[in-house]
Design goal:
This protein is an alpha+beta fold. It has 3 helices and 11 strands. The strands form 4 sheets. Strands 3-4-6-7-9 form a 5-stranded mixed beta sheet, with helices on both faces. The longest helix has 12 residues. The mean pLDDT is about 85.
């Protein structure tokens, strides 16, 4: 996030950390609870943690902060045109295993099939998890 201040010869710019992930909203199906979703797409059936191309360190930190504030947080992960859900608990379990630096596709939670053009229903799946 960038903020600019000042005019004329000496304007200055602030570079602020962005606390928002890909999607944020108010979920009416859950009593207007705040929901945060980070979206990821990978070519391979693994989602790296704290690395570029996967869930970055700052994204993981922000997911944890939003979850601690009471938000529903999840990662919607697309691979081969399907979507699975990764919860903060799955990320914590993967990080606890020091031999792993990623989450396997088979460990992520499959989405409930959607209707029409929506092949996967992320929110219906999230309803079952909360």
């Amino acid at each position: 996030m960038i903020k600019s201040r000042g005019r004329g010869t000496f304007p200055y710019t602030f570079h602020l950390a962005n606390p928002w992930l890909d999607y944020a909203g108010c979920w009416t199906a859950r009593a207007n609870r705040h929901i945060i979703i980070e979206a990821k797409t990978t070519k391979h059936p693994t989602l790296s943690i704290n690395r570029h191309g996967g869930i970055t360190e700052s994204q993981w930190k922000n997911l944890q902060l939003w979850e601690a504030a009471g938000s529903i947080c999840l990662v919607a992960w697309q691979h081969e045109m399907r979507i699975r859900i990764v919860t903060p608990d799955l990320i914590k379990m993967a990080l606890a295993d020091t031999s792993r630096v990623s989450i396997r596709w088979c460990d992520a939670i499959p989405c409930i099939p959607g209707h029409g053009w929506a092949t996967d229903d992320i929110l219906k799946t999230a309803e079952l998890l909360t």
